[in-house]
Amino acid sequence: MILAFYPFDFSPVCTVEFGCFEQDLSKLNDLSAQVLGISVDSKYSHKEFAGKLDLNFPLLSDFGKEVCGLYGTLRKEGFSERAYFIIDSQGIVRFKYLMPTPKDRLENEQLIEDLNRL
User: Fold this and answer.
1) Which terminus of the chain has fewer Cβ atoms in its 10 Å neighbourhood, N or C?
2) φ, ψ for residue 86 (rounded to 5)?
3) What domains, with CATH codes, occur in the chain?
4) Looking at 2, 3, 4, 14, which residue is catalytic?
5) Distance CA 10, CA 14 (A)
């Protein structure tokens, strides 16, 4: 599983990032990876965002900010850092990337390379 934390629906970087996930979804699925996006936005915002980008993977709402807190991605401003966790089939986090700023994002090629190492 790729658990992708992101700051906000409809922000410029997040829009590009999730468009790229959708573009590479078949490659990720071929590696048995399920992509899950997660942010503090509401489920209603996620529905609109997913519809706009025609996403074919789930977006999870952490409106209460508990999951972001557990994974260490919650910023003091109240939204999530951009971060990526690759979790194996036993539930073990195998790779973790916490981006230096919300403007930075990881290229999918890095995630694909990591998945190939599992």
Assistant:
1) C
2) -105, 120
3) 2-117 (3.40.30.10)
4) 14
5) 7
Place of tokens 């409809």: 10
State yes or no: is 68 an active-site residue: no
Q: Could you say which DSSP state residue 33 is in? A: P
Tokens of residue 26, six digits: 């078949």
pTM (2 decimals)? Answer: 0.95
Extended beta strands in 1-115, E state = 2-5, 35-39, 59-61, 83-87, 93-98
Q: In terms of Cα–Cα distance, which of 67, 46, 65, 53 is closest to 17?
A: 53
Closest C-alpha to 52, from 18, 13, 8: 18
Residue 107 and residue 51: Cα distance in Å, rounded?
Answer: 23
